[in-house]
Amino acid sequence: MRALIFALTLVACSGGHDSRPSTAPEPSRAPIALTYLGVAGWQLDAGPTTILVDPYFSRPDLDGPVVPDPAAIAAHAPGRADAIVIGHSHVDHVLDAPAVAAATGAQLIGSESTARLARASGLPDSKIVAVHGRERIAGDGWSVQVVPSLHSKIGEQHLGGEIAAEPQLPMRFADYAEGGTFAYLVEVAGRRVLFLGTANFIESEVAGLRPDIAVIATGLREKVDDYTCRLMRALGQPPLVYTNHFDDWQAPPVDEPADDDLQAFVAEVKRCAPATRVVIPRHFERMEVP
Ligand SMILES: [Zn+2]
C-alpha cells in the first residue's frame, strides 16, 4: 500500500516561519483541486496526493452517545488519502477522522486528544501522529507544518481540556474536549495552502507563512480584535481565500446564498487585501486551482 511504502518523517522546524527546506529544490507549480466537505472539512488533491482536513460527514444527533455514520462516510470520503490533519478535537472536527483514516489508509495527524480518540477507535499506532505544534511532517511530494493556534471565542465552558486518556466509546458531545488547536500549512505541488479551521489565530505563529491559498474560518470572528485585516496582513495578503466553517454544523449540508455575515467577510477582505479573491465554496464541489 502506498501509504505504507512512503515513510513519513517528523522533523522539528528550525526556527523562523518559512518552512521550505533550504536544501530541497523548489517544486514546480502544478494544478491542485480543493473540495469543501462541510463544517471545517476539506479535501486537497494534487496529482497522486490527497490530504484531508477535519473531514466530518456524519452530522449525528448530539443528544446521548455520538457515533459516526458509516453511510455518510462511505458516500463522501475518497478511496485513499495520504494524511488527515485535525485542527482540534471537538466533535464536528474529529468524530469521523478515525473511520476516514481506516477507510483511506491515511495517517491521522492531530493533538494528543485526537490521538487518544484514534487509538480508542482501533486505529493502529503506525497510522497515528500526535503533534504538539511547530512540527513539520513530510510525505512523498507533500509536507504539513503544524501551526499553534487558538479556538474561536465560543465561551470558556467549551474551550481547553483533553479527551480522556483511554476514552470509552461512544462518547458524549461534552466529552469531545478541544485538546488544543492547530492550523496547518500544507505544501504540495509547489503551493502553500493554509487551513484555519476555527476563527482565531496567534499572530506571531502565522506571520510570514505567506500561503498562496488561505482557507479561513469566519464564524464568531467578530469576537477577535480586527480578525480579518490582522490575518490578511500577517499572511502577506494571500491571492486566494476560501471561507471555512460557515455552514450549520448541526444540520445536513445545504448550499444557501451567502448570508450577511459571509458577505461582510468578503467586504472585510476586499478592504484590507484588495487583490485577494474570496471564494465561498459549495459542498462537495471540486474546485480546480490551475
Ligand atoms: Zn471547536
Describe the protein's architecture and organization.
It is a single chain. The protein is α/β, with parallel strands linked by helices and about 290 residues long. The chain has helices at about 1-5, 70-75, 90-95, 95-105, 110-120, 205, 225-235, 260-270, and strands at about 10, 30-40, 40-45, 50-55, 85, 105-110, 130, 135-140, 140-150, 180-190, 190-195, 215, 240-245, 275-280, 285-290. The longest helix has 13 residues, at about 260-270. The chain is globular. The chain starts with a helix and ends with a strand. Bound molecules: zinc ion.
What is the fold's blueprint, element by element?
Elements: H1 2-5, E1 9-12, E2 32-38, E3 41-46, E4 49-53, H2 70-76, E5 83-85, H3 91-94, H4 97-104, E6 107-110, H5 112-120, E7 128-130, E8 135-139, E9 142-149, E10 181-188, E11 191-196, H6 203-206, E12 213-217, H7 227-234, E13 240-244, H8 260-272, E14 277-279, E15 286-289
Parallel strand pairs: 4-5, 5-6, 6-7, 11-12, 12-13, 13-14
Antiparallel strand pairs: 1-8, 2-3, 2-15, 3-4, 8-9, 9-10, 10-11
This protein binds zinc ion.
The site of zinc ion has 4 residues, from loops.
Features:
290 residues; Metallo-beta-lactamase, Chain A; eight-stranded mixed β-sheet; 8 helices; 20% helix; binds zinc ion
